[in-house]
Every structure is written in C-alpha cells, then in structure tokens.
Fold this sequence. Notes:
Blueprint: H1 3-16, H2 31-45, H3 50-62, H4 65-69, E1 84-85, H5 95-100, H6 111-128, E2 136-141, H7 144-154, E3 161-166, H8 169-180, E4 184-189, H9 198-207, E5 212-216, E6 218-219, E7 224-225, H10 229-238, E8 243-247, E9 266-270, E10 281-286, H11 288-295, H12 308-319, H13 331-344, H14 349-369, E11 386-390, H15 397-406, E12 409-410, E13 412-413, E14 423-427, H16 431-434, H17 440-454
Parallel strand pairs: 1-12, 3-4, 3-5, 5-8, 8-9
Antiparallel strand pairs: 2-10, 6-7, 9-10, 11-14, 13-14
Helix pairs in contact: 2-3, 6-12, 6-13, 9-10
Organism: Tothia fuscella
EC number: 2.6.1.44
Domain Aminotransferase class V: 102-416
Amino acid sequence: MAPSRALPRLNLFKDHFQLHDHTLNNTPFSTERSSIAAFIKESESSPEHSRFYSTSLKLFDSKSKEEALKEKEVKMSNQEEHAALLIPGPIEFDDAVLQAMSHFSESHVGQPFVNVFGETLTMLRKLFQTEDPASQPFILSGSGTLGWDQVAANLVEPGDEVLVLHTGYFADSFADCFETYGIKATQLKAPIGDRPQLDEVEKALKEKKYKAITVTHVDTSTGVLSEIKALSELVHRVSPDTLVVVDGVCSVGCEEIAFDEWKLDIVLTASQKAIGCPAGLSIIMASGRAMKRLKARKTPPGSYFGSWKNWLPIMQNYEAKKPSYFATPSPQLIRALHTTLTQVLSKPLSERFAVHKAASQKIKKAVADLGLKQLASKPENQASAMTAIYLPEGLTPPQILPTLMKKNVIFAGGLHKEIATKYIRFGHMGVSVTDPNRKDIDVAIKALKEGLAEVGYTGPK
C-alpha cells in the first residue's frame, strides 16, 4: 500500500478501537461500536444527562448493553438538529457521505482521486446492473436536467423525431429540452395519475419513425411509476432502431432497473435522490448501441460541455485509472458518491428495492387510513420512491406544510401545473428508509395525521 494511503487507513483502524472522541458515522458498520461512546460523550457535555450517565454505568454492571440502550434513545447522527427532509429529493444523507464531502482539497488529475473516480464509474455498472463492456457510464458536474441535454445533444440531431411518454411535469420539460436543440418532440399523454398504455405506444411507434422514445420511470410531480421492462420489449419488437431512454432521476437506487436484461439504451439520473449523495452530479449509463449512434452522427454534438465526444475519452481513462482532463470535476462530490455507492452495493440490490417497497406500502396504507387519495390511484402505477397525496377538499399546501414544518417534517407542495394547489408530495428514499435506526417515516406519518387534525380535517366519515 502506498504510504500516502496507508496512514489514513491505519487511522481508520485505530478509530475502531477508541471509545472516546469517536466520529459517529451512522452506517451499518459504525452503529454498534459507537453506542457506548455516544452515551459517554453526551453525558460529559450535557449536565442534564449526568444523572443518566451515572445510572447507566451501574446498569452496565447488571444488564446487557442492549438492555441499557433501551433506557435511552441514542442520537445516531452527528448532523446538526434539523427537520426530517422528506421531499422527492434532495433526501437525507448518511453521515459518512457528508464527511466524504469534507475531504481535503486534491488534484483532479492526481492518482489518488483518479483511482476513486475510476472505482466509482465501475460501481455504477453494478448499480445499473450492466456487465456489457460496451456500456458506458458518465458522471458530469450538474443536475439531472443536464442528463436531458446530454441525450438531446449527443443521440439525436436537429430535425429528428422523438416520442416522449408523458406522466407529468418532467415529460413536458424533457420535450422542451429536445425542442431547444431543434428536435421534434411528440408527447403521448395519459390522464393525471396514469401512464400511457402499451397499445397506445405501439400505435404511435407504427405511425411514425422515432429516433428515440423517452419515459420517466418515476415522475416526481405525480408519483407515477412507469413499466420499463415491457415497454422496452415493445419498442425492440415494433421499432428496433428507436433508442430506449429512461429518465431515472427519481428511481435509480430504489426501483428495479436491469440495464442489460431489459435492453435499455440510456438511463439518466442525479446524485441527490435515492442514490443518497448531495446534489451536483449528472449520472448516465449508455448502451453500446447508444455509443454507436453517437459515432454515426452527421453533425457535431449540439453542446460543448455536454459533448460525449469530449467526455468519452475522459471517462474511459478515469475508469482505467489514468489521469485525464477536459473540464474540472468535483473531487468532493465524487468522493461522496464513492462512499454512498460503497454502502448501497454492500448488500444485494434486491434487498434495497424490497425495503423501499415495504416502506412505500406502509406509507400508502397510512394515507388510505386517513381517508386521503393518491394521484396514482392504481397500485401498479405507484412508485416506491415517493407518494403524491391529494389534500382534503378546500385545503391547500400553504395551509398544511407550515404545520408539518413545526413538527420537524418537510414535505413538498404540488408540482403538476394543472393541480399544484390540490396536493402535497412525500419523498421516502435512501437512509430515511434503509437505516433502521432512523424514525423519519414513522415521525412523518404521525406528523401528517396530527397536522391534518390541527387544520380542521376530521378524517374519513
């Protein structure tokens, strides 16, 4: 091991055996060893807990550690006290991810950072479930919206036709992005809370030749989940030259996406949602077929910063652990992404998807028990990442959201322009769902019930 990396690693090992002054990471690997340290540190710094401290020392003489822990709720995070952020992104972040953001400044072409970036790109292949060497991951500084620009700038050309499946606000925006690049976008719309049906899609594909079809896997404005596998099978059967483009900004990391098996061409996402990293990274997985489309362009890509002809050699070099440069990445954000991907991939993805689904079903049952309805009324249309909830008649978001805020819970208002004043959105992704020590979901359900009662809602009649 290189000396520059050996010392930090030795320090990490040392921290495992220190009882005091230990940084609580709030991860599956740190929770167990941090519990007693948290007791002592809190008692030493807070007089109001001194009586508990002296009592707990006696408890440890006669009780197991687990029994003693039941006597007091232990703070499992070093983050400043704050309301639980339960919007459809950004989400709550794990302490270790935030700590990675405080990494000292380093060269973006230095070998230590290049190694981390390369490992991160390789881990993305596992997250998207692709083993095809022709697939290509991209990580660019930007938001999920930059993913739209990359698709429009690199894979279709001015005058081309694309079909945009509409399940809410973000289909409108993706279509607008295409139009900005001189591309003709046709939208196939569904009623609010629903998704275009496969027979409708088949009919549209047979009527006109489209270079690409786009689908928002989870539309953050409505909470509608689209069926990706069956859609891709349909496209490959009816219009095999049409690229299958998935907007997975609100689905990657919490909904099943099998890139190779489902024969997807593009899945684009962002760092700040279910992946669990602070905002600032646009993340894409592109198929070998998509890369061939890039190389076959008749015109140059329509963007300079977003041009894959500029970024492709950089990404390939980084993954091969070779320094390369086109534009400066964010070393801190890449390190944070590396940290969260390491956590995500420490368990089977199937377990992660199942945990999100179970939490979602719990929330949706609570919503129904309150006599409220979802925008996505059909179970097959309901996302695991979030729930869009119609408010009781006569109630608007500005009337309920401040009440929830006072209860230390932050939900989002409506986003769909036609019904924005009629509903709120509850995001449930990442550590708020996967960390068993966090009570964000239970607190939010309780706050919603109490908050509605405080503004005059009496529940189902």
